From TrEMBL:
The keyword Lipid metabolism does not apply. Belongs to the PqiA family. The chain crosses the membrane at residues 51-76, 96-121, 142-159, 165-186, 253-279, 299-326, 347-366, 372-394. Keywords: Cell inner membrane, Cell membrane, Membrane, Transmembrane, Transmembrane helix. InterPro entries: PqiA-like, PqiA-like_proteobact, PqiA-PqiB_transport. GO terms for cellular component: plasma membrane. It is found in: Cell inner membrane. It is a multi-pass membrane protein. It comes from Actinobacillus ureae ATCC 25976. Its main location: membrane. This is Integral membrane protein, PqiA family.
Length: 413
C-alpha cells in the first residue's frame, strides 16, 4: 500500500497547522477548524489554463467592441458595446466614472488573461514569475465580466419600454468570454504555481517541532526568519513584507470604510441618471430607480437592482463596521458567524458595480439631443468610489485577527 507524504500547512484564515497529504489527485484539502480550502481538488495545469487565457484574449476584442444589443429609434439602429459605453461616458463629461468602468470591464479582464499567459511564457523561458503570481492573486476580484452580463439584462429591461430592442449575434462572444474567465478563476491554482517555480522552498514535514509562520501573499508555511535591511521580516519565497502590524491593517480598513461611507451620502441623495423623452426629463436616484422598475411591473429586475445598489452596499458597510468593533472591543461572539459575515462581504462587494455598468450601456445606446436621451447623474462617481473603497476595506480586513481574539477568549474560560 502506498503511503502518501504528509506535510504541514498553516491555514491562512485561522492559523491552524494542518497535516496535508500530498499526491492525492481529485481530493480537496480543507482546514478541520474553519473549513477553509487549503488545496483545491480540480485545478488544471498551467498549460491548459494558458490555452483558456489565449482563447479569452482572442475573443475579447470582439466581445468589447462588437454590438451586444441594439435599439431601433425612428428607423435608425443604435448599437450598445462595452467600449462604446465607456467612451460615451468619458466624452460626455464623466471621465472618472468611465475610468472605473474601464478598469473592471476592460483593463482587468485583459490583464488577468495576459498574466496567465505571461506565467506560461516565463515557464518556457525558465524565468521565475514572483511579481506576476502576486499580481494574479490580487487582480481576480476586480474582473467583473459576470457582473457586466447581469447589467446587460437590467439595461435591456430598462429600455425595452422606450424602443424596440434586439440582441446581436455578437453577444455570444461576450457570453463565451465571461464563461471562460469564470472557468479560469476556478481552475487555476496560484499555490501550485508557487510550488512549481520555487521547488527549493520545501514544505515542512509531519512532526516538525516548532510552530511555523505563514505568508498571507503566497500562502507559504515556513520556519525561516528573513529580515531586510530595515529590520522587517520578509517571506523567504515571495519576499512580501510580513512585519505589518495589526494596528496598521486596522487603520487602513477604517480609513477606506469611513471614506466609503462619506461617498455613499451623495451617492444615495443625488440623481444617478436622467432620462429624457420628448423634451421631458426625469432624474432618478438609486432608490427611485428601483421604484421605477416596480411601477413598470419588472419586479425581478427591481429586486436585482435593489440588492446590488442598496442592500449590498449598506449591509457591507454594516458588517465591516461590526467586525472592526468586534476586534476593537474583543467581543465574545461566535467566530463561525463572524467568518460567514466576512466571506459574505468578500463575495458580494463586486456586485455593487452593476449600476455603473448599466449606466455605461445606457450611455452607449442613448445620446443627448435625441428624442429619447440619457445622461449620467452626479451620484455615479460617488457610488463607484464607495464600491471601490469598501472593496479595498474588506480585502485589508484580516480574518486572523478575529481568530486570535477567539483563541484568547477561549483560554480565559
Amino acid at each position: 500500500m502506498k503511503i502518501n507524504k504528509i506535510t504541514l500547512q498553516q491555514c491562512p484564515e485561522c492559523e491552524t497547522v494542518v497535516e496535508v497529504p500530498q499526491d492525492l489527485p481529485f481530493q480537496i484539502s480543507v482546514c478541520p477548524n474553519c473549513h477553509d480550502v487549503l488545496r483545491p481538488a480540480n485545478s488544471w495545469s498551467l498549460r491548459r489554463c494558458s490555452i483558456i487565457a489565449l482563447a479569452i484574449l482572442i475573443l475579447l476584442p470582439f466581445a468589447l467592441t462588437f454590438p451586444l444589443m441594439s435599439i431601433d429609434l425612428l428607423g435608425v439602429p443604435i448599437h450598445a458595446t462595452v467600449w462604446g459605453g465607456v467612451w460615451k461616458m468619458a466624452t460626455e463629461g464623466y471621465p472618472y466614472t468611465a475610468f472605473m468602468v474601464l478598469l473592471c470591464s476592460v483593463v482587468f479582464p485583459i490583464s488577468f488573461a495576459m498574466l496567465v499567459l505571461t506565467i506560461r511564457l516565463q515557464k518556457l523561458l525558465g524565468h521565475r514569475p514572483r511579481y506576476t503570481l502576486i499580481l494574479l492573486s490580487r487582480i481576480q476580484e476586480w474582473v467583473m465580466l459576470d457582473v457586466y452580463l447581469v447589467a446587460l439584462s437590467v439595461a435591456a429591461f430598462k429600455i425595452r419600454d422606450y424602443a424596440d430592442l434586439s440582441f446581436s449575434i455578437h453577444l455570444s462572444a461576450f457570453v463565451i468570454v465571461t464563461i471562460l474567465t469564470t472557468l479560469l478563476f476556478i481552475k487555476i491554482d496560484p499555490k501550485e504555481a508557487w510550488a512549481y517555480f520555487y521547488p527549493e522552498y520545501h514544505l515542512l514535514p509531519k512532526g516538525y517541532p516548532t510552530h511555523p509562520s505563514l505568508c498571507p501573499t503566497c500562502e507559504y508555511t515556513f520556519d525561516e526568519k528573513i529580515v531586510d535591511l530595515k529590520g522587517r521580516q520578509r517571506c523567504p519565497r515571495c519576499e512580501s513584507n510580513l512585519a505589518i502590524s495589526d494596528n496598521i491593517k486596522l487603520q487602513r480598513v477604517w480609513a477606506c470604510l469611513l471614506a466609503g461611507v462619506v461617498m455613499m451620502i451623495p451617492a444615495n441623495t443625488l440623481p444617478i441618471s436622467a432620462t429624457g423623452l420628448a423634451g421631458s426629463v426625469s432624474a432618478d436616484t438609486l432608490f427611485s430607480g428601483v421604484l421605477t422598475f416596480i411601477s413598470m411591473g419588472s419586479y425581478s429586475v427591481a429586486a436585482i437592482v435593489f440588492i446590488a445598489s442598496i442592500a449590498v452596499p449598506f449591509s457591507k458597510v454594516a458588517i465591516i463596521l461590526y467586525l472592526l468593533l468586534a476586534i476593537h472591543y474583543k467581543w465574545k461572539h461566535p467566530i463561525h458567524w463572524q467568518m460567514k459575515a466576512l466571506h459574505y462581504v468578500h463575495f458580494v462587494g463586486r456586485w455593487s458595480m452593476l449600476d455603473l455598468f448599466v449606466l455605461a450601456l445606457m450611455m452607449s445606446l442613448l445620446e443627448r439631443g435625441q428624442i429619447l436621451s440619457f445622461s449620467v447623474g452626479d451620484a455615479a462617481f460617488f457610488f463607484g468610489a464607495a464600491v471601490f473603497l469598501t472593496m479595498i476595506a474588506s480585502s485589508n480586513l484580516d480574518a486572523r485577527m478575529l481568530w486570535r481574539i477567539h483563541y484568547s477568549n477561549e483560554k480565559k474560560r
